[in-house]
Fold diacylglycerol cholinephosphotransferase.
Amino acid sequence: MGYIPQKSLENLKKYAYKGVDKSVLSRYVLNPFWTWFVTLWPLSVAPNTITLIGLMIVFFNFITMIYYDPLYLTAKGGASGPPQWMYFTWAFGLFAYQSLDAIDGKQARRTGMAGPLGQMFDHGCDALNTTLECILASHALNLGRSWWTVASQIATHANFYLTTWEEYHTGQLFLGVFSGPVEGILMIVGIYALTGLYGPSFWDQKIFTFTHLEHIPIIQKLPNLPLNESFMVFGALGLAFNIIASYVNVRSAMKTAGKPSVRPLLLLLPFVTSVGIQIAWLSHPEFNHSAIIKSPLFVPFLCAWGLQFAHQVGRMILAHVTSTPFPRWDWIWIWSVIGAVDANLPRVIGRGPIIQSSMRNTALFVWMTLTISLIVYARFCTLVINDITDYLGIACFTVRKKDEHGVWRHKDHKA
């Protein structure tokens, strides 16, 4: 019951990472820093260890949020939230994650460990970070339990899915002049820093009032949204641009290969399906006493959703490095489908939910969904790592050594 068919294992040896980074900031500012930063790490440190350290820093930031604001209310909801200095640690943690995520590939080339395992591990950590940072950033923006936070999660997941979908069809990772892993992360670092200086309520100011543009006649015709909601609109425009740019790249690759250029669009439907399931669960009738979005279950729900998303894109990346068919359905969605159908029974057949008949039962079901999603994703990671390390004769967290002939060897090839 592994994830890699036996006949596809040989494709692992054919895989080679290809990437294009058009970011001016990355090329002239960050990359020189990363090139220096990687030299501080001993060659005995495996690149996957560096990636994991970065994820652990972000997870620590997430734990501090839960500690200071376990109900995820933020100032808008009546909670004091974390002390303001804590947001600076989130800024440092995210910048550290970006730096460590950028140098793991450089460390892999330094140690001769570049390959499909590093690609899988790096993208797997990125997928988890996407959800964690979405929750943290929404907290810093004072969005709290709201549909804006849900929209933020959808947008960040959509960008990651698009990048993975594009890489599957083109064979290389494209980072444009403005990309999430570079400029997007630095923008969120800036949000954390501003929240640390002025507090979460800073983002409730009206954008045109804040910029002193509200007296301009043409500006008065536009909605004077709060800063946090304006940032969400900016993110939506960025997502629209990324959709177009990704499809242009995929269309070009398909034409070059002599393949249909419209068919890849159908493979965006799995993401739309997964989002539709989660939205259906969240938008159930409120009179069934289980409004998740208005309860402390909101963060566990988002985390379960994030783990299911990580499993989905993990299978996509695995399909890319093993040259296997694109995954169109993920069985882990079944649990959320049950939750969505049950919660919407009042709307569908006019009777109350069977499983989520009370807030207590809803809590048990959401936490069970989170637990199952965590177990399934952990199983996926374990099986994939073991399959790759066994077949390629490498280790996940140990650097290989060269023998007397200059060939990379490893005595213990287990993960």
